[in-house]
Amino acid sequence: MAARATLSHDDYTVGWICALPLEMAAAKLMLDAIHPSLPRPPTDQNTYILGNIGDRNVVIACLPSGAYGIVSAVTVATQLLSSFRSIRFGLMVGIGGGVLNGNADIRLGDIVVSQPTDTSGGVIQYDLGKVLSGGQFQRIGILNRPPKVLLTALATLQAHHFTEESRILEFISEVRAKMTPRIAANFI
């Protein structure tokens, strides 16, 4: 891996987009190290936090304050990919808006990782459907499946959960240790 002082746009392979500043703060706390900013092309209006998690160099971007939704997310992603051309995969990680499923007890604060099934790419985008008169949701489109590199990582994570204790509490403890009291109050 290149020395930290000589990293370029091409050294970043993971793009992480957040919808809210609070989510960006949490993403920043997940980084093992923060890297210096890089020059931004004039066509890129994003501001980035650069760093690494393990041996992966990560670029984090956030939607503009007050500008939410698909158009803002696509604009941020397009500009990120234009500036960081070696991105292998992108993530949008944040606070979920809700789960429309009577079979699962999923609450705010739960960690949810989607995976594809025979009839779904793994993520259900609720504006690709409509609610019928009985309250049932009918999908009218689907999103693509995640890249294989993420699906194989998910399979490995699932295997670890069968054979080892979860490290979630350890990771949460590490993040809390990095927080200032002001930031911690927003996460409790």
UniProtKB/TrEMBL annotation:
One GO term (biological process): nucleoside metabolic process
Listed InterPro entries: NLR-like, Nucleoside_phosphorylase_sf
Gene3D superfamilies in UniProt: Nucleoside phosphorylase domain (3.40.50.1580)
Coiled coil: none
Transmembrane segments: none
GO molecular function: catalytic activity
Protein name: Nucleoside phosphorylase domain-containing protein
